[in-house]
Amino acid sequence: MKKVAVILAGCGVYDGAEIHESVLSLLAIEQAGASWHCFAPDVDQHHVINHAAGEESGETRNVLVEAARIARGDVKPLSELNVNEFDALLLPGGFGVAKNLSTFATSDEEMEIEKEVLRVCKAFATAEKPAGYVCISPVLIPKVYGPGAKGTIGNDPQTAAAFNAMGGEHIDCPVDDFVLDQSRRLLSTPAYMLATSVSQANAGISKLVSKLVELA
């Protein structure tokens, strides 16, 4: 059975991993006949958002501990991920990607990627193992894969401009499809960058994951 490593950015669309995208990704991996294995960096979140009020709560939370909510406790520190043990990589979206896995939310194209996230993503790229980036997570692609790497966040002009400014080649994509950079074995799909429902998000995610597992 093929094994897919999944990096979660916490728990919750506004400050962590997008829950719908994460669960849909795990389901799609199983439906494609592979197994998922969740990881998260053992670091504090950038901040904590009260999702009911839409405001900062002033709390401090840990990304790994929060990610365990989605994985039902079955999650390991990202520092323990060994690329040689897995066939593919997948990163669901959520603002935690731009806040916890990187500094994109505050620095756009000048962003830095969290050290363990960068190590793991580059390891899969170097090993030429397929990787899928969902929703906002494709903003990491240019810093991981270098100039010319193709990816999509849908069609948001500002985010696409930042993607291109970092050296990537942004490709507009509808919610129910994905972009494949064949030479890099790299996939991306807009999901909730465009989706207005769970079923819309699932349309692109399920196609991406099916191709990801096929390439693995």
Automatic annotation (TrEMBL):
Keyword Lyase assigned: yes
One GO MF term: lyase activity
InterPro entries listed in its UniProt record: Class_I_gatase-like, ElbB
Keywords from the named record: Lyase
Catalytic activity annotation: glyoxal + H2O = glycolate + H(+)
The protein's role, per its UniProt record: Displays glyoxalase activity, catalyzing the conversion of glyoxal to glycolate.
Recorded family membership: Belongs to the peptidase C56 family.
Identification of the protein by name: Glyoxalase
Native organism: Grimontia marina
Gene: elbB
